[in-house]
Amino acid sequence: MTDKSSQLEHLHELHLNAEKIASLKAEEFQKIPAWDIQALLLNVVKHAEQLEKEKEALNKSHLELEEFQQQCLDLYNFAPVGYFNLDEKGVITNVNITASDMLNFPKDELLNSDFISLIHPEQKEAFSSYLKRISESGVRLSTELKILRSEGTSFYAQLQTIALKDKGVYTYRVSVADISDRKQAENNLKENEEKYRMLFESMEEGYAFCEMIYDQSGNPVDFRYLAVNPAFAKLTGLPVEWVVGRTVREIIPSIEYAWIETYNRVVQSGRSERVQNYVAELGKLYNVHAWRSGTNRFSAVFSDVTDNNPPS
């Protein structure tokens, strides 16, 4: 028997005894020894005090529970992402304040509306397929879609959704994060990459991105081509696809060591250098500007100045 059960049984017995004594006639009551009455009263007081303590503990637990519930509610409402609860038909049954602010919609207007009405018209079909994949797989899935605000503008959002199944009926929990800034940064990066790619491919100067190679003693002995542009092939007569991934000594076995020394100085010092030197095996004089572009790596832009400086 547990302590709680024993306590309840004792309290019940005490209650019965008190009722029994209280129902006695005066002459019968007077026959009860005073110490019995005193013991009963002491027990009553003791249990009354215990019940009062338990009441206080319950009140404290109730207050703590209310406080915890409020904290959870605040966390839900003011989380950095929007939260939506959807029924099996995709109707919004609950939404937090963050989502309401994000969409510029009053919370009351969002409740009982179809979530798909918030999706950009071009992506409604994609959203329906997304929910279907979630219900079929039973796992949380993420997607990126355009969400509409109340004024008709839209923003890129990342959706994280999980399906819950109860008695064969699905409901959905959806979190929505505004990723417009990230998308803009990605678009800017893509545009910049496209600009640099066009510059890389259209520039008249040759370009090479290389990595130094050292022997076991740390001496520079070679360098490997990691990337070159079309002008590199035009100015050297060496095809791009044949050069990339190979070392200069594989391509030009008799390459002057002065080139390796120069590029090593650039890599080690971090200072750019401009040099002019021959590559005898190619019969060319090159004007080169080289700079460090990573650990043991360098980049070089060069032009062919052979015709302006014929060998003596």
Note down, in words, how this protein is organized.
By secondary structure, the chain is an alpha+beta fold. It folds into three domains: 3-76; 82-182, Beta-Lactamase; 203-304, Beta-Lactamase, CATH 3.30.450. It has helices spanning 3-22, 26-30, 34-77, 97-103, 107-110, 124-137, 180-202, 230-236, 240-243, 248-251, 257-269; strands at residues 82-86, 92-95, 141-148, 154-166, 169-178, 206-214, 220-228, 273-279, 284-294, 297-304. The strands form two sheets. Strands 2-1-5-4-3 form a five-stranded antiparallel beta sheet, with helices on both faces. Strands 7-6-10-9-8 form a five-stranded antiparallel beta sheet. A hairpin with a 5-residue loop joins β1 (82-86) and β2 (92-95). The longest helix is centred in the N-terminal third of the chain and has 44 residues, at 34-77. It is elongated.
Give the arrangement of secondary structure elements:
Elements: H1 3-22, H2 26-30, H3 34-77, E1 82-86, E2 92-95, H4 97-103, H5 107-110, H6 124-137, E3 141-148, E4 154-166, E5 169-178, H7 180-202, E6 206-214, E7 220-228, H8 230-236, H9 240-243, H10 248-251, H11 257-269, E8 273-279, E9 284-294, E10 297-304
Antiparallel strand pairs: 1-2, 1-5, 3-4, 4-5, 6-7, 6-10, 8-9, 9-10
Helix pairs in contact: 1-3
